Amino acid sequence: MKDRVEYKRSKEIPGLVLSEARFSEFRFDRHYHLDYHIALVTEGVQRQGFHGETLLLTPGSIQLMPPGEVHDGNSAGDESYTLKTFRLSPELLNGLGEEISAQNRFPALGGAVLQDSSLAGHLSRLHDALRAARAGSEPLAEQSEWLTLLDRLFVQTRMVKPQFVKGTLTSVQWRRIKEYCDVHLAEKITLEELAALCNLERFHFLKLFKQTVGMTPHAWVVRLRLERACSLLSHTDHGLSRVANEVGFYDHSHFSRAFRQAFGVSPSKY
């Protein structure tokens, strides 16, 4: 199979570059990066020389490679391997440090390999979603998942201590969110917008929202869209495509799939 590699800058997360590669013959010579890498081998095995040791990266493993660390990489055998990488700029990493660790930057940036097939699977799916960047994609979902998964990753590798957020949103903050979503339901709603309404950082807002509502912001907004769709289907003669657009679903198949999952029937049978 011919080697291939693709790079894409994330539209939703400034400072993030995503790469996906399929290698069989290509070998990484000893090198280092100026940015921070989170790498996943999703198929096959990569052999890597790092700190005088040989590492075998397999599906289910997650590697954190800080700037300046010298390493190499190649296929561990005759078979090819697939590598997905999140490349975080120093500015992006420092910003995440402020949000997730409540400090100006991460206290430690050592290399690490974590074996966690569940987390690796979630990161791989997020990588795919960010690379796809479809017109109807949900920035609220992707931004929330990004912060949640990185928090989980950095806590497990002991780069940061778990941040316990107490309390709930105030009644004023909750009212602002509901009013804003009612008005802007047909538009893309971002995590930054909702957090700003409450004068909170995104990560802090995520924690408080779930403790207040019992759902993630994305799950709550999706349900609001579906409930609004039910009302339109019951009281108007709008076609399905128009209803989907009016409640913020830019893809008709996505609308139908979400509706069926929520109510057990397709929108056309409601």
Automatic annotation (TrEMBL):
Residues in HTH araC/xylS-type domain copies: 175-270
SMART domains hit by this protein: HTH_ARAC
GO MF terms, alphabetically ordered: DNA-binding transcription factor activity; sequence-specific DNA binding
Key word Transcription present: yes
Gene3D superfamilies: Homeodomain-like, Jelly Rolls
Classification via SUPFAM superfamilies: Homeodomain-like, Regulatory protein AraC
InterPro entries given in the database record: AraC-bd, AraC_XylS_family_regulators, Homeodomain-like_sf, HTH-like, HTH_AraC, HTH_AraC-typ_CS, RmlC-like_jellyroll, Tscrpt_reg_AraC-type_HTH
Keyword Nucleotide-binding: no
Secretion signal span: none
Keywords: Activator, DNA-binding, Transcription, Transcription regulation
One Pfam family this sequence matches: HTH_18
Protein's name according to its UniProt entry: HTH-type transcriptional activator RhaS
Natural source organism: Paraburkholderia aspalathi
Name of the encoding gene: rhaS_16
